[in-house]
Amino acid sequence: MSSKGTTKEAILTTSIHLFNKYGFDQVTINQICKEINVTKTAFYYHFKSKDELISEFFSFDNMISNTDLLDILTVTDYADQAMKAMEIYVKHMVRFGVEMTRENYRIHLRNQVLPLDKGKSSLLNSIIPTLVQRAKDAGHINNPASAEDLLDSMCIIANGVILNWAVTDGKFDVLEEVRKRFEILLVLKDE
């Protein structure tokens, strides 16, 4: 791994640790740099701001792990695979808590985009629509909308449920609610 990759990863990991420990607004770029002994120039080489750092951390493609992939691939039903792939984002939000989720949405809303955006993710842009189409072809999904429209709706549902979860201080099982809403949207056929 190059030192550039290592520095970027160190900045990202350290920043998230500090944000969780002290709160996003309480952590400065100077504090991040001091913690890992890098210059502000090095920080700004990789990230333009703390906001960009949060956006990168929560980008869909950065979240998927080998364990997530195995979990998706062990399921033989394409509709369930598509839902599990979408749920990766939800699990990541829950893992990093309500405060970090709020920061992520605050940043994205200020930039007038939603965090879960298929245009920014190869997984969302190509793999999930393929799984949805395969599920439609196999008769597991009964919603007549196109795979692309279903993916758009899944992204909107996930964003809405996650945002509601963050606003209500995590007072409900967000993963269970997202799955319930996906099942309603997709009109899943009972096996």
Question: How would you describe the overall organization of this protein?
Answer:
Helix content is 72%, strand content 0%. With 191 residues, it is mostly helical. The mean pLDDT is 86. Helix 9 packs antiparallel against helix 10 (174-186). It contains 10 helices and no strands. The chain has helices at residues 3-22, 29-36, 40-46, 50-57, 60-63, 66-73, 78-110, 122-137, 147-167, 174-186. It has 2 domains: 3-49, Homeodomain-like (Arc Repressor Mutant, subunit A, Orthogonal Bundle), CATH 1.10.10; 58-186, Tetracycline Repressor, domain 2. The longest helix has 33 residues, at 78-110. This is Transcriptional regulator. InterPro entries: DNA-bd_HTH_TetR-type_CS, Homeodomain-like_sf, HTH-type_Tx_Regulator, HTH_TetR. GO terms for molecular function: DNA binding. It comes from Halalkalibacter hemicellulosilyticusJCM 9152. Residues 28-47 bind DNA.
